[in-house]
Specification:
Number of helices of chain A: 10
Number of strands of chain A: 10
Largest sheet of chain A: 4 strands, parallel
Radius of gyration of chain A: 17 Å
Shape of chain A: globular
Largest interface: A-B, 39 and 39 residues
Oligomer: homodimer
Distance between the termini of chain A: 18 Å
Order of helices and strands of chain A: EHEHHEHEHEHHEHHEEEEH
Structural class of chain A: alpha/beta
Chain lengths: 247, 247
């Protein structure tokens, strides 16, 4: 892919802002570049006012769909022709984003994460999810993993409340040991119940939980970062390393 | 300033991408926020194809002015009503950016850095500049500091070549000791020649040179980060902490 024909990456961001920063930083850092002009153009709408995804999925609050659709149209208006959304739960509204910008490529974070998990563990049959209520209730990962014959486990009631509290703490700027330990504890219980890999299925989770952090007596369990998976997928497509399957 | 009336920050970025990431990360981290919705909306055009500022100032290449003007219009079209440009040299073309979006506030990185320097050292009479050829040749800092009665020294021929090489190394992803040491050495020579503070007058410089890094026998010399100055100024204005003097 020559410089001229490289896509302009549009980022539907702000969900939350720290996760958008993390995605942008990793995308720029992972781009092979000796000078400014080797980089991709990236346009970002870091909009923290997108309606809450969990409330939208539960039907207890407004749907974020129309807001996300407006963001997508704005980014495309600015020149974006490859859209990404570094928020797992927002993918419950992916169809509305795609419909808003017909003909524009959209790379699914969910598909990228499932593919990254299978690339790392080709024999994986069972994964555990660390995500928001929106991500769990919408079934987006259940469906995507089921298509690959992989079973998905989610935390039980109290454990899911721990996950949500940890995510909210990270959104509030806490990257300390309290949210990290809570996520690690829940991940260990998912692994003890049979999960062979744990999916950091919320882009706030990789800010405090990393691969190698989840250790059982039987060894460490893979932690698959959805942020890293989307960064890799974005570069693969934008730099023409793979055929474009999405969008 | 209530949530509803807070400005949307538009970032003319990509000069270079790592510096844009650094500005965005610091802006989000410095925003007082307990939840997503406490954050500002920030729209970013991270466009690494802006024509080279040093060649534009020297007249040996196309002016980046028209490109920057288009970026400003695009960001305003997306909703931005407070523009910033985390690139010092691009401020040689600030008038074209302002003229492209009449009535939209633009916060000068140069003015923010001069103000930050004087706030830290109210008695400062002499500063040294670490910046690109564009920033030095355009005289943007010389004029702004002269208005405050402050003398500006710049590196001599060989030293300025060291600064440019270090900045290009950082743009190429090198955050190691080689560019850091070169910038520190030049900063020490500026201080030995009388500079009471050294201005990191290129947004790549703070990626490797930090306050406290420039130490002489007589003590350490302040390193003033233009990135930090613009982050603080943006938040002061966006959160209504200060009256708006710019734009």
């Amino acid at each position: 892919v020559s410089g001229r024909s490289r896509p302009c990456v549009g980022v539907l961001g702000g969900m939350g802002p720290e996760a958008t920063v993390d995605f942008f930083a990793k995308l720029v850092a992972a781009t092979p570049a000796a000078r400014d002009t080797d980089h991709l153009r990236i346009v970002i709408d870091d909009d923290p006012s997108v309606p809450d995804r969990s409330a939208g999925v539960a039907g207890t609050g407004p749907s974020p769909g129309p807001h996300l659709a407006r963001m997508a149209r704005g980014l495309v208006g600015l020149g974006a022709d490859l859209l990404v959304m570094p928020c797992n739960g927002a993918h419950a509204f992916e169809a509305e984003v795609r419909a808003a910008v017909p003909g524009v490529r959209f790379l699914s974070l969910i598909d990228a994460t499932v593919a990254a998990t299978r690339a790392r563990r080709p024999d994986v049959r069972h994964v555990g999810l660390l995500g928001t209520d929106a991500t769990l209730a919408s079934g987006i990962y259940h469906r995507a993993f089921a298509a690959a014959g992989v079973r998905v486990s989610t935390p039980t009631g109290d454990d899911q409340r721990l996950v949500m509290a940890a995510i909210h703490a990270v959104k509030g700027g806490d990257r300390g040991s309290t949210p990290a330990q809570a996520l690690r504890d829940v991940a260990i219980r998912l692994a003890e119940a049979g999960a062979e890999a744990v999916i950091a299925a919320c882009t706030e989770v990789p800010l405090v939980l990393h691969d190698g952090d989840v250790v059982l007596d039987s060894g460490s369990v893979d932690v698959v970062s959805s942020t890293d998976a989307l960064v890799a997928r974005t570069l693969d497509v934008a730099l023409g390393r793979v055929p474009i399957a999405d969008g």
